[in-house]
Design brief:
By secondary structure, the protein is α+β, with helices and mostly antiparallel strands. The chain has 3 helices and 4 strands. The chain starts with a helix and ends with a strand.
């Protein structure tokens, strides 16, 4: 009975705060987003203070860095550098 009560309370809390119930982005999700934005070669993917950071290169060899908010999935910044 105690377990059932705990589960009901947890469900109510999650329904009150949808952001807590939302699925967080995985490394695979971020990799797919980076590929969609033109990265063909990924050098590094890391999560830093709630922001996914992806570094890689596009098809012409230019360096690209993409930052994605881990909670919302919103792309915060895309920075393209010259070749080299």
């Amino acid at each position: 009975m105690r377990l059932l009560s705990s589960l009901v309370i947890l469900a109510l809390c999650l329904s009150a705060y949808p952001a807590l119930a939302a699925k967080r982005l995985t490394v695979d999700d971020i990799r797919d987003m980076a590929i969609d934005k033109g990265i063909v070669s990924i050098k590094e993917i890391e999560l830093d203070d709630g922001v996914w950071e992806v570094e890689g290169r596009d098809g012409s060899g230019r360096k690209i860095k993409i930052e994605v908010d881990a909670a919302s999935g919103e792309i915060v910044k895309i920075k393209r550098k010259s070749r080299g």
